[in-house]
Specification:
The complex is a heterodimer. By secondary structure, chain A is an alpha/beta fold. In chain A, strands 1, 2, 3, 4, 7, 8, 9, 10 and 11 form a nine-stranded mixed sheet that branches. The N and C termini of chain A lie far apart (77 Å). In chain B, strands 2, 3, 4, 5, 6, 7, 8 and 14 form an eight-stranded mixed sheet that branches. Chain B is 39% helix and 22% strand. Chain B has 13 helices and 16 strands. Classes of the chains: A alpha/beta, B alpha/beta. Chains A and B meet through strand 2, helix 2, helix 4 and helix 9 of A and strand 2, helix 3, helix 4 and strand 10 of B. Strand 2 of chain A pairs parallel with strand 10 of chain B.
Chain lengths: 280, 378
């Protein structure tokens, strides 16, 4: 007699391409958690999934779009936001979500981030910040802290450069909703992603994640579990704090919360008003 | 819209051609000598319910055009050589994800910043080989204001039909010259639209081609789900590092253009029937060549012209056939010789003479006439 085992399906499976499993991610990586956060946000809002578009760039986080069971696009390196702008402006009915990494969004794609925020195009950008270029083997990037080690910032000094604070960057560029959470704060992060999606404007949500395989190994931060435990320990919730005070010091203090939630005219709405006026 | 007549410049004719073709999204960045296209679009697009979007750079411009195209909107950008240099990575993305779009290059003097307000035809090879990897491209070369309109419409038709980026390669002189433009009645224009899937969404394979090698294209917001990626992908659209998947994909992407080349290529045979000398030219120099050929005929020289209205895919059969008919071929182009090398590849052993002029003013009729006479005396 054979015993049948009941396999519980993950509740978010309905949004995910199961035939693409297993994920490409290393064990201990945060990207799977954040993928779950995005799926839950979509689910909690009851979005029409056919009208939802998920776009990403290149890198580990850049692979996220390909796991969602809707219209998804994997752009060239850094161009996810630019692609998303075209899609949103051409069809404002779409709910456009960009999920990509810190290197993709803040280095090679940094220009598109600040200008999309300035234009205030309605989209939600979820940026997973793991402090390095993971897929290429762990080189320093635009968010790597000063004097931290990577494959291209070796001992004895480590990183000669200084990092961007993405919350400050997005806020000063004009984003109408800005939040930061760590991958451990999955519920709070999910709620902020929901708010970002609902917001009629440019929303930026940074999720601090762990890359134990590369960044963690080179800086002796422990395995995935240890890194996530650390994130929980140093996360300090300060909702409503002015964005310029939202400090990020990996070792001691990662200020988390929602820092910007403002109203201003949104690009596609103003464009439609212009089209209407010209018709009259 | 009934028939309209304008006296206008090539750049504006190009913009009107795009609008007549149904283009409703323009993403661009200002650059001489293509700026008039952007300016015209910023006015006309919203009037027609479309979008003119000015981006922070050319990379964002063309990538946004790819994004717009996946919503089902006909989309374009217009720039010049320096802008094209920035856009070329995305051209590869559009080729790989089979995205219809039109890229207008109003060619100026190069390399680098070169001579922004002067024409040149230095970007012919760039259009074909500029992005990395093995791919085919379609590039059209108008020679008049009317052709700027007509061939922009054609560019949209080809991009929709073959799901591929299409270049309109016009030299600055064509872009800025002013001539009569007849915009035909909308009902008289034959317009193509990309195929969309009709099968059940559960059976849809986003990159499974039909017999014409072109897969039906699902759109964002439709009931079809798909993953489009610049990575090598199988018919499901899923990334693969397998050798056979790579070979199958790039073979098909190349074949869908090359095997339809006879339907894509457009040339004009001018006074070639009894010609012993042939000029091969395109864009503005071909206008000088026409005058030179008429003058030479008056002097009893049997000369004609093969005018290329399509440079990519290259009209190899037409050139080979021409080479079997004439004793000499003169290639007159406004660069240091680009189409020349393609002609050499397909016209050998017929002698090929290059007449270059990599400067703002194209070859003048009397200069081409002198060249014809020189060849006649060989």
């Amino acid at each position: 007699m054979t015993e049948s085992v009941h396999v519980l399906k993950h509740p978010m499976t309905k949004y995910i391409r199961e035939d693409r499993q297993p994920w490409i991610y290393c064990s201990g990586c945060s990207i799977g958690i954040v993928t779950g956060m995005v799926a839950r946000a979509i689910d909690n809002l009851g979005l029409d999934f056919h009208k939802t578009v998920v776009v990403s760039g290149i890198g580990c986080t850049g692979r996220t779009s390909g796991y969602f069971k809707t219209g998804t696009y994997h752009t060239t390196h850094g161009r996810a936001i630019a692609f998303a702008e075209g899609a949103k402006i051409a069809n404002p009915e779409l709910e456009v979500i960009v999920v990509s990494g810190d290197g993709d969004i803040a280095a090679i794609g940094g220009n598109h981030l600040i200008h999309a925020a300035r234009r205030n195009i309605d989209m939600t950008v979820v940026c997973i910040n793991n402090f390095n270029y993971g897929m290429t083997g762990g080189q320093f990037g635009p968010t790597t802290e000063h004097e931290k080690y990577s494959q291209t910032s070796p001992r004895p000094i480590g990183n000669i450069e200084h990092p961007f604070n993405l919350v400050k960057l997005a806020a000063s560029s004009g984003a109408t909703f800005v939040a930061r959470w760590t991958a451990v704060q999955a519920r709070r992060g999910t709620r902020s992603i929901e708010k970002g999606i609902k917001k009629k404007g440019f929303s930026f949500i940074e999720i601090i994640g762990a890359c134990p395989t590369e960044y963690g190994r080179m800086n002796r931060l422990g395995d995935g579990l240890a890194m996530h435990k650390h994130l929980l320990e140093v996360a300090e919730i300060q909702n409503g704090l002015p964005p310029h005070e939202a400090e990020l010091d990996y070792e001691k203090r990662i200020v988390c919360g929602e820092f910007v939630d403002i109203e201003k005219p949104e690009y596609t709405e103003v464009l439609r008003e212009m089209q209407r006026k010209l018709k009259e | 819209m009934p028939k309209r007549i304008m006296f206008t410049m090539g750049d504006i004719a190009c913009a009107e051609g795009a609008l007549s073709a149904g283009c409703r999204y323009f993403g661009g960045y200002p650059i001489t000598p293509a700026t008039e296209i952007a300016e015209w679009m910023s006015q006309r697009m919203p009037e027609l319910g479309g979008a003119y979007v000015q981006y922070e750079d050319e990379i964002a411009s063309i990538t946004s055009v790819i994004g717009a195209s996946w919503t089902g909107v006909k989309a374009m950008t217009a720039t010049s050589g320096p802008g094209v240099s920035l856009m070329l990575e995305a051209v590869g993305l559009a080729v790989m994800t089979e995205t219809p779009l039109v890229l207008v290059n109003i060619m100026r003097g190069g390399p680098s910043t070169g001579q922004p307000t002067r024409g040149q035809q230095g970007d012919v090879m760039q259009a074909k080989w500029g992005s990395h990897g093995d791919y085919q491209i379609i590039a059209l070369t108008p020679a008049s204001v009317q052709e700027m309109f007509d061939q922009t419409v054609q560019a949209f038709n080809l991009s929709e039909k073959y799901r591929t980026p299409v270049f309109v390669l016009a030299d600055e002189t064509v872009g800025h010259m002013r001539e009569r433009l007849v915009i035909p009645d909308k009902k008289k224009l034959k317009l193509e639209y990309r195929k969309q899937p009709t099968i059940d969404p559960s059976e849809y394979l986003p990159f499974k081609p039909d017999d014409d090698l072109v897969p039906p294209m699902a759109l964002f917001g439709s009931k079809y789900q798909f993953y489009a990626t610049g990575l090598t992908h199988d018919e499901r659209g899923y990334p693969s590092d397998k050798e056979d998947v790579q070979i199958r994909l790039i073979t098909r992407l190349n074949d869908k253009i090359l095997k339809n080349a006879d339907k894509i290529i457009d040339v004009e045979r001018f006074m070639l029937d009894d010609a012993k000398i042939a000029v091969i030219s395109y864009g503005t120099p071909s206008r000088s060549a026409k005058k030179a050929i008429r003058d030479a005929r008056e002097q009893g020289i049997k000369v004609g012209m093969l005018r290329l209205k399509t440079v990519w895919p290259f009209p190899e059969e037409q050139v080979a056939e021409l080479a079997s008919e004439v004793d000499h071929i003169i290639v007159a182009e406004q660069n240091m010789g680009q189409v020349y090398y393609m002609v050499k590849a397909f016209a050998a052993p017929t002698p090929i003479h290059l007449m270059t002029k990599p400067a703002g003013m194209p070859q003048l009729p009397n200069e081409i006439l002198d060249k014809i006479k020189e060849i006649k005396s060989i």
